[in-house]
Amino acid sequence: MFGHLISCYFCFCKTKFVYYQHMACGMVFYLCCVFTVILHSRNTVCQLIIGRGALCVIFELLFVSPYKPTLNDFMALGYEAWREARRTLQGLLSANESTLRDDVSLRSRAFVHQSTAIMHLPADIGDYTDFYSSKDHATNVGIMFRGKENALMPNWLRLPVGYHGRASSVVVSGTPIRRPSGQMRPDQTKPPVFGPSKQLDIELEMAFFVGGGNQLGEPIPIKKAHEHIFGMVLMNDWSARDIQAWEYVPLGPFLGKNFGTTISPWVIPMEALLPFAEPNSIQDPEPLPYLQHPDAFTFNINLFVSLKGQDMVEAATISKSNFKYMYWTMKQQLAHHTVNGCNVRPGDLLASGTISGPDPESFGSMLELSWRGSKNIDLGGGETRTFLKDGDEVTITVLEINLNLKVPYRENCFLCDFVCDKDSRV
Q1: Predicted local distance difference test score (pLDDT) of residue 335
Q2: According to its UniProt record, which residues of this chain constitute the active site (predicted)?
Q3: Which of 54, 71, 120, 296 has the least C-beta neighbours within 10 A?
């Protein structure tokens, strides 16, 4: 009893791609991905730049590196190796470096049209953990199910709550998702029923890939956590709310969550984001010492969710949120995950949980936007939703990252003309 297909896409630019402007400033934002060139049989691991549909294949042509089907081995090299690769890429793309600038033949081989590339998952994901780190989201859900007085569980302000998800069903952007079936109990006075979920939802999230791992029994201290965080992806953690509501007591999510999680093929390395970290959320009560870190480790990343039904001409924006709303940081998540000696490995995926802000338009799930189905989400043209319908298409977009840099970008990079000026959806 499979339902119809629903799709999710991720967009890293819309009208203007901020990364490339600032890459040309000498602070290169390089993205990592894995793709297959059509008519070629093997995957290529690359550090890349998108620009008018081009992919810059650096590992293959300019580093001494064998073909690898995923980024796992590169992630495993560790913090200093990632930094060296980034510095090398910065140099190669500098206006003062002739290697690519003056070699037409090399450039023609180093760039692949995006239209000929099939995107893949960037890593083999051994394990996947989903956190629950937005205070606004946790409060909203708590009010809906337990009431305002008991919105947050006693442990929520003390530790980053999370659960172990299903790595095998993490898929790349654009992969169709079938509506799941399972047990539900819509009428509390009657026995449960089996059938397709009627409350299929999205969750706006970001996630990070673990780079270098740790040995079993050896926690990652919070002061070293950044050295183990490789980079970030966009995520939609599909959720069947009616299945989840019936099954989650006492052990937490199961079939309501494990049928599909979509991530972007692009990974933004943390080394590129760290210079632009913003102050963390004020945490009260103060966390225990193993979770304390004074350095800023949150980021002002504007996120947008749009939904397009089968009969809609244009997609409608249903959420405008921001990663800065996270209460618990990625460093705290990783430190807590390993404090008991749990070992993590290169390519493990740790997700933020739903990213919701204080205002209704910044809620990151349809559960919140419709307030558990009690009100319609207006899509325009007479279209409304409470939860997803068959054939709906969801797009999560990073419109910009607020970097507040003032340097004119066109003076420092020979690839300045490759600034993306159209939507690039993957």
Answers
A1: 99
A2: 137
A3: 296
Based on the residue annotation, tell me whether 137 is a catalytic residue of this protein.
yes
Which of 311, 319, 318 lies closest to 392, judged by CA? 311
Q: How far apart are CA 24 and CA 416, in angstroms?
A: 7
Q: What is the DSSP string of 397-411?
A: EEEEE-----S-GGG
d(CA 122, CA 137): 28
Which segments are annotated as binding site? 130, 132, 146, 203, 205, 237, 244, 248, 257, 261, 354
For the record, the structure tokens of 9 come out as 């896409």
Q: Output the known binding site for Ca(2+).
A: 130, 203, 205, 237
What is each CA distance from 301 to 308, 340, 354, in whole angstroms? 23, 31, 14
Query: Across the 426 residues of the chain, what is the mean pLDDT of every consecutive 10-residue run?
Result: 64 40 33 62 49 43 62 93 85 82 80 77 97 99 96 98 98 96 97 98 98 98 98 97 96 96 93 87 98 96 96 97 98 99 99 98 99 98 97 90 44 41 43
- Note the residue count of the chain: 426
Whole-prediction pTM: 0.87
CA distance 52 to 49: 10
Q: What is the DSSP string of 178-240?
A: EPPEEEE-SSTTS--EEEE-S-EE--EEEEEEE-S---TT----GGGGGGGEEEEEEEEE-EE
Active-site position among 22, 137, 293, 336: 137
At 16, give phi and psi (nearest 5°).
Answer: -155, 130
Cβ atoms of 416 and 410 within 8 Å: the answer is yes
Alpha-carbon radius of gyration of the chain: 22
Separation of CA 143 from chain center? 26
